[in-house]
Amino acid sequence: MSQLKILGEGISDQALAQSRGKLFEDLMSTVLRSVGYEIGTLVHNVNYSGMEIDIEGKSHLTGIPLYAECKCYEHAVESPKFQQFVGKYTSRWFKDKKCQGLFIALPCLNSHAKGFFNDNCRTNSEIVVRLLEEEAVLEEIFTTKQAVRPEVIAENITNTMGHPGDSQLLYTDRGFFWIQHVTPSGSGIATQIGYFDARGKAITDTPTLEYLQLLYPDLKGFDTVPGVVGKVTGLQKSYSDGDTVVRVRGSSSCFEYQFPASPQFFLGRHHVTQEFDDYLENLSKGYTSSRGLLFEANSGWGKSSVVLNCAYRLIQKGHYSVAIDCRSAASTQFVLRVAEYVRNEFADFGGSVKYSGPDVGGFDGCIRTFMEISDGLRPLNKYLFVFFDQFENVFYLPDCLKRIVDLLLKLCDERANIVFCFSWKTDLISLANEFPYQLRDTIINCSNRIPLGTFSEVETTALLNELAQELGEPLRKDLRFFLSEFSQGYPWLLKRLCAHVKAQCQLDVPQAELVQGLLNVEDLFHEDLSGLTQQEENALRNIAKVAPVVISDLGEKFEASVVQTLVNRRLIVRIGNKYDIYWDIFRDYLNSGRVPIQENYILRVQVRSVLKTMRVLSESGGKLSTTTLRRRTNFTEKSFYNVTHDLRLLGLAFVDKGSVSAAIVLSHDEKEFEGELRNFLRDRMRRNRLVWQILQKLESNTEMPVSQVGNILAEACPYITASFATWDVYARLLATWMDFCDLALWNSDRKSLTLYQPSKEIRERQSFLSKVKKSGFYPQIQYSPLVDVSERLVNAIRKEGKGTDWWSGLTKSTLSKSLVTLELLGFVVRKPKSIEILPTTERFVAAPPNERRRLFSEAALKLGTFASFVEILTEHQNSWLSLSELSAQLKLKIQADWKISTGVIYVKIMLDWARHLSLAPGVFAISKRGRKSKT
After folding, report:
1. What's the Rg (C-alpha) of the chain?
2. CB 523 within 8 A of CB 655
3. pLDDT tier at 770 (50, 70, 90 boundaries)?
4. 129: alpha, beta or left, given left = phi > 0 and alpha = psi -120 to 50?
C-alpha cells in the first residue's frame, strides 16, 4: 500500500509550515472537486503536530451544503478530533437537514475513531457523513490522472534490480513524485530507492534528486537504484497534445440533439439575434468601446446554437468569425494556438493584413498578431469575432484565463476591430467561490451581456411545426401539448424529445401511443444507455468522470472497439484530440445518478385518484395490465390516461407495453401506506421548479391566493398557452398536492395557500383540530396532561413531524382540550391544518421544574378567570371552601353565566393548577381527599 506525503519548502519553520499548508489546501481542494463539491469558505491551521482545514461548500450538482474537515498528521487521527467534527457538523445539520458532512483523515482514523464512525455515522439514516482516508484520497488522485498508480511504478523495477517494496507519493511545490523502495536480490531489507515523476518516468538528474532529498531528509539514507528506466504512460501529454483549437460543431439535421443547431436549423431567439445585431451596429458606428460579448444561460438553453448562428450572421454581413470549443483548452498555450489558428484560417484577410513575423512566438507575439489584424481591418470597417464557447472550462485553467483577460483588456483599450465573445453556463460560473471570480468579473465588465431564457410558446411551436413537416403529417393536439410540457422550455430537451418521437414514428408507432409513452429527462438518458453492453456502459461512466479527456489516454484503459461504439452511438463526441460526453447534463447524470436540473411539470389529477391507483397497484403485487387497472379503479378512459400520466411524472409508476408497474414499494397498512407515499412525494416535488418558486414566494409572503399561484405557473411555463381560468385550475390542483406533501397548507375556504414551517409547526389531519373552539376563557384540563402534550409537541418539531405517532396513548378528548388550553395560555396557535408551537412552549419543556412553574404561572395568571380564582383562594386560605362554594364565589366574582355544577369542573381544574404551581395558599395547598365533600 502506498503512502501520501505533503512536503513544503522554507528557510524557517513558519515558512515551511505555510508552504505545507498551502500545498495541503490545494490538494484538498482538488480532491473535493473530484468528488463533486465546490468550496465556499476555507480556514486552515498548521502546527507542529499536523495540518487542519475547515471547509464549507456545496455539491456541484445539487447545491446541497457541505461541511468538511481535513486532517493530516504523521499518525492516525484520534477519536476526539473526529467527535469534535461530528459535533460541529450536527449543529449545522439541525439548521439544515440537507447538510452533508465529509471528514478527510490522513493517514486514517485510529481504531476508536473508526468504531465511533461505524456506530454513529456509517449507517445513520438521518445524517450524511462521508469518510475519506489515505487510500481513498490516493484513488481520487489516480482517477483524476494527476499521477500514475503505484503498479505502473513497480513495473519499472526489473528482476535484476531487485524487488519493489513500499512506495510513497510526494506532493511538492513542483508537483507529484514517486518514491519506490527496492530490496536488492539477496538482501532482506530495502536499501535502495527509485525516483519517478508523476507520469512514471525515471528521474536521474542531480538537481531534482537533491531537491527531493532536501524536502524529505529520510531519503538520504538510501542508494539510488542503478539502471532504472521509466516508462512514459501518456498520463500527461505535452501542451501541444491538449491545446488543439477546435471549432464548434453544428448538427447535420434539425433533430440531431448531440450537437448544437447549425444555422440552417436554427429557430427562434429573435430577441437574441436583435440584441446581437444592435451591438454590431453600435460597434460599427463607434458608439461602444466594449470589445467583449457574453452569452449567459443555464445548461441546455441553447448557448452553442446561438454562437453558431451569430457567427454565421457575421459572415453574411461581410465580417469574419470563428467559433472555438473551449473544451480543447489545456494550458496557457491555448491562447497562442488561437492566434495561430486565426492566422492560418484567414491568412492575410484578403491582403488587408501584414504580419511582422512568420509566427506567433509567445504571448507578446500573440498580442502583436491580433493588433496587426485589427489594424488591417479598421480601414475596411470590418471586424473579427472570436467566439469562446463553453468558456467555463477555461476557469479551471487560471493562467490561461488570465492571458485571455489581459488580451481582452488590450482589445478594449485599443478599441480594436476584434471582439471576443464568451458563452458560459450561468448555473456554474455564478458559483464564483471556487473560480477566479475577479477575472470573471473583469470579463463581465468589459462585455455586453446577452442572457438567454427558456423557449417561449412561439419558439416551441416553431420547432414542433418543423417536426410535423419532417413527419409529413400534423401532430396530434395532445402530443403537441405534452411535448411542450415535458420539454420544460429547454431547447435541448425539446429537440431530444422530438428526435424520440421522430424515431418512433419511423417505426410506425401511432402518435396516440406515443402520447402515453412520452419520456422525461431521466427516461431519455435510460434510452441512451439501452443496448450498451456492461463493458461499454462501464467505459462510458469512466470517461464521464474525467471528460473532456485526451484520446490517447483512453487507449491504455479501454479497447478501441468499445470507444468506437460509444462514438457511433453519439454518446461521446470528439473535440480535436479529446473526447467528451455529448451533453454536460448527461455527464453529470452518469457521475451522480441524478438529473441535475429541476423538473417542471403540472399535475392534472386529484391526490385521491393517485392514492386510489397506487393502493390498487400495491395490493396487486405492484404490476397490472392497463385494462385490469382501469377496471379496478373504475376510471373513465380520459381520467385513467391523466392518472397514469401523473404517476409517471411523479416517478410512482412505469407505463410500458400495456402494463403499469409501481416504481416504489409501499406498505399494505393503510396509515403507513399514505405516510410512505407522502414522504416519497415530498422529496420528489421539492425538485419541481414550479413548486420551488411557489415556496420561495411563500417565504416572504406567508399566504398566497390561488390567482397568484396561477400567475406564477403561467410565467414559469411560457411554452404553454392557457386561459386564466385554466391556470387557476392548475394552481388549485398543485396547491392540494403541496398540502398533501406537507410543503404548504391549502385553505379551500379562503382559496389560498399558506406557508408551512416544519421547524415550528406540526401538521395535524385529525378532524378535532378545526372543530373544537375556544370555550370562553376557562381552562379545559389539568396540569399534568398539559405538560405531557407540550413535551410531545416539542419532540415532534425537533423531528419536523416525522417518524412516529405523536399522540399515542392520548384520547381525542384529552388532546383537544389540551390544545385549546395551551392556546389560551399562549403556548400554541391552532390552525385549520396545523399546530404552531410558540417559543414559550420550547422554553417551558427545556426548563427545570422550578422554572417550568414560573413560566406556566406567568401565562396562567394572564387568564382573568384563573387570576380571580387565585384571589379567592388567598381570601379564604384559612377556612376550607368546598368545590361548590368555590364555584359560587368565582361565578359571582367574574359574573359567569354557568350552573354551579359546571363551574365545579373548572374550579377543580384550576385548583389542580394552583397546587402544581405553588399558588394555592393555606388550607388549599393540600388535597383534602380524606375529608367528606360538601358538594
Report:
1. 36
2. no
3. very low
4. beta
Tell me the three cell numbers of residue 773.
373552539
In whole angstroms, what is the distance from residue 186 CA to residue 172 CA?
34
Contacts 24+ apart (CB under 8 A), 7-14: 7/170, 7/171, 7/172, 7/215, 7/216, 8/172, 8/173, 8/215, 9/172, 9/173, 9/214, 9/215
pLDDT tens for each residue of 134-175: 999 998 898 888 999 999 998 888 888 887 877 889 999 889
How far apart, in whole angstroms, are the C-alpha atoms of residue 567 and residue 562?
9
CATH architecture of the domain with range 525-594 = Orthogonal Bundle (1.10)
CATH of domain 3-143: 3.40.1350.10
Residue matched to cell numbers 506567433? 360
Helical segments of 155-269, H only: 206-215, 239-242
- Look at residue 649 in the predicted model and tell me its pLDDT: 81
Residue 344 has pLDDT above 80, yes or no: yes
Residues 6+ apart with CB under 8 A from 664: 651, 652, 676, 680
Q: Where are the domains of the chain?
A: 3-143, 150-224, 263-451, 465-519, 525-594, 607-755, 761-860, 864-925
Query: Is the domain covering 263-451 a CATH 3.40.50.300 domain?
Result: yes
Helix-then-strand count for the chain, H and E: 38, 27
* φ/ψ (deg, to 5) at 730: -60, -40
Per-position DSSP letters for 234-257, written without gaps between them:
SSS--HHHH----BPPPPSSTT-T
* Amino acid (one-letter) located at 314: L
Average pLDDT on 266-276 reads 92
- For residue 690, CA distances in Å to 513, 661, 685, 696, 714 come to 28, 27, 9, 10, 10
Torsion of CA 896, 900, 903, 904, to 10 degrees: 160
Write down the pTM of the prediction: 0.54
**pLDDT score of 240:** 39
Helix (H) or strand (E) holding 806: none
Q: 3-state SS string over 863-882?
A: CHHHHHHHHHHHHCCCCCCC
Q: Is the peptide bond before 848 cis (omega within 30 degrees of 0)?
A: no
| Amino acid residing at 18 | Q
796: cell is: 415532534
Angle between helices 607-619 and 637-649 (to 10 degrees): 80
Q: DSSP assignment of 475-497, as one string? A: PPHHHHHHHHHHHTT-HHHHHHH
pLDDT digits (tens, 9 = 90+) for 822-865: 998 999 988 878 888 999 999 999 999 999 999 999 999 998 89
Taking only the tens place, the pLDDT of each residue in 533-586 is 888 888 888 888 888 877 766 666 777 778 888 887 878 888 777 788 887 778
Position 681 pLDDT exceeds 50: yes
Classify the phi-psi angles of 922: left when phi > 0, otherwise alpha if psi is within -120 to 50, otherwise beta. left
In the predicted model, what is the mean pLDDT of residues 400-425?
Answer: 91
Predicted local confidence at residue 293, as pLDDT: 95
**Would you say the C-alpha torsion 574, 575, 581, 583 has a positive or negative sign?**
negative
The whole-number average pLDDT for the span 524-528 is: 80
Asked whether residue 416 carries a pLDDT value surpassing 90, the answer given is yes
Distance from C-alpha of 641 to C-alpha of 635, rounded to nearest angstrom: 9
Is beta strand 163-172 parallel, antiparallel or unpaired with respect to 175-183?
A: antiparallel
Work out the average pLDDT over 788-804.
79
Q: Return the SS3 of 57.
A: strand
d(CA 357, CA 514): 62
